[in-house]
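Researcher: I'd like a structural prediction for the single chain below. Treat it as a standalone chain; there are no partners to consider.
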Amino acid sequence: MLTHLAIRNLAVVDSAELDIEPGFTALTGETGAGKSILVEALSLATGERADSNQVRTGETQADVTACFEVPESTPLPEWAGDYDLADECIMRRVIRADGRSRGSLNGVPVPARRLRELGACIVDISGQKAHQALLHTGAQLRILDEFGGLSKSVEDFSARYEELREAERECDSLKQRAGERAARQDLLNSWIGELEALKPRAGELEQLDRIRLRLANRARLLETAGSALDALRESEHSAGGALASARQALESAGEFEPGLREAARLIGESEVLVDEAVASIQHVGMDLEEEDGNLDEVQQRRQALLAVARKHGSSQEELPGLAVELKAEKESLESLDEQLSRALGRRDALRRTTEDGAAALSEARRRAATEFARAVSDRMQGLAMEGGSLSVRFGETDAAGRRGRDRVEFLVALNPGQAARPLARCASGGELARIGLAIQLAAVGARQPPTMVFDEVDSGIGGRVAEVVGAGLAELGERGQVLCVTHLPQVASQAGRQIRVSKIVRDGGTRTVSAQLAESERIREVARMLGGVEITPRTLAHAEEMLARGRVRQAPGGGSHAGAAGK
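Model: Treating it as a single chain, here is the predicted structure.
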């Protein structure tokens, strides 16, 4: 459950830190004070979409950190074991003014997607419009699956369904190939024949480029080689002759001066190098003289290789192996009937498995629906909806989808003897909020995340109904942690603790502050919520009485359940 929430530069909050305890905590304050920003901060920390507008004006970034204790029994994603969440789970999100964000889990950078996957396991946030999701049949099916503990079964079925879809796509592809087989075989035969006639060799294009350059510049190369030979050996004043004369002169004088003998030795080495250079030039000259290549033929060969490479979208280096690949495809086409037969067999087997899985899932859902309808209907009686009931109507789609074959719709009768009608057509805002809470309460026995957050989901109700809604939230708090943003004193008075959020204007700026209230402060805050321009002794007494009733319900054996407030 959530233990600590730290916020920096988010919207109107410049800095806030909250220590959150188990049980039911109410977040109260004037309209516009920033209560919902605390919920927004928790949503960001758990991976929800970030926006540059969330950064406080004049700041470069917003920073939100949420610390959780995760019970061992909490089902987590498989990858969560890599982050050592046993002692503490610290989820952090930084949002920059340019709209970019980064997240971390226990100090290790992670994408927002991972924060979102983990957050869905440990915290459930119901916003002001959350109960509107109850009006959609897709959401109703998910609620039923979660209640019945069928989420893993649905996940397994979805995996089999995707296998079936892949098998169907493979069959369609093979059928298409079979229809195009004759034309493709003719084309392959043509390509293979072309490559076998061309016989491309590895590295051939580079070799052709070298030959092409030599042939194109043959006259120039021969002229350059001849000039170099003349300069080195064959002319009257060649470099070789000059070196020989200098060496001989130095050798004859070397007996008088040792330094001249060393110079003569070095010139002798230079003569050797000149001889090697001459030999190399002569070898190249002979090769050029004997070159019998035809430049046009080389150009044609090169263009032929490039044209084939372009045709097949290959590099020249890949050409020698291309014929092998085309022959393999040709053999594959020849065995296409066998491949298609195997693929059809696999598809039909998967179809049978999928049909069986859809039938089993449907049967399990119908069993869960009976218990779900009974549990929600019982909870509705304690939420000032006496005589009301919920039922689940099943329908079937033409073909199974990723979640099976079923369509479900929640039907509600709000009064005794009234015909049940689809939830979307008969519930007001307040009734929808109470039905949503009844579903949450009913689901406690099936699955309740460690932390549940309600952001003004009690809007549109008041009086006795508000009191029984508060009792329902208190019951949820007994089994975990509940945070509720509320304007209703009937709800706040039943919380185990209360945090007041206030907005102050100072130095031309607006900021939000929050503080957990002591008992005396709670009395004044509940009195404020009761209304009136002036808080009178009578209002304070009424607030104190409401808080006292809330404490009675919270005490062991005090009857803190959704029906208690209605008695």
